[in-house]
Design goal:
elongated; alpha+beta; 37% helix; 20% strand
Length: 153
């Protein structure tokens, strides 16, 4: 863990809310002048606290109306190749998030597709055909109550 002073915490909060802000805008909001603000942002990027800056899209407005959470259990042979399975699902653009789990299931995936029919095709043609997959339990999200990428710093 890297020590963050109060200004750096404020900078990170502002960037999480809107990464398109200029250094001058961030500096004004956190109570610094632009030069020291830029140096702090540069350090946070170099040290890896800021991994990248992105635009967050509205998935429904780009036609991705189905959001599915899939729990995947691998057989014994599959568990020996967790990295291989992880790399394979990491290459699927439909899989937005993937987590290794403790418990009865091995992975939790967050998947988005155009609709349930598209998920069905993804499920039968790609996901269920991966080597080592024993079980897949899919849960369709009906509505989204909260979705954020902002960390509580």
């Amino acid at each position: 863990m890297i020590h963050l002073d109060p200004f750096e915490r404020k900078i990170l909060r502002e960037l999480q809310r809107d990464a398109s802000l200029t250094t001058a805008q961030i500096a004004e909001r956190v109570g610094l002048t632009p030069s020291p603000c830029w140096r702090r942002i540069d350090r946070l990027e170099r040290e890896g606290l800021i991994r990248k800056r992105v635009a967050l899209l509205d998935r429904r407005k780009v036609g991705l109306n189905a959001q599915i959470f899939a729990q995947v259990k691998l057989n014994a042979h599959g568990r020996a190749n967790l990295d291989e399975f992880g790399a394979t699902i990491g290459a699927f653009p439909e899989v937005l998030d993937a987590y290794v789990l403790m418990g009865t299931m091995d992975f939790m995936l967050r998947i988005v597709t155009q609709d349930i029919d598209a998920y069905e095709r993804f499920f039968f043609e790609r996901l269920s055909k991966l080597p080592g997959v024993q079980e897949i339990h899919s849960t369709v999200a009906l509505s989204e109550i909260k979705s954020t990428n902002e960390l509580p710093i």
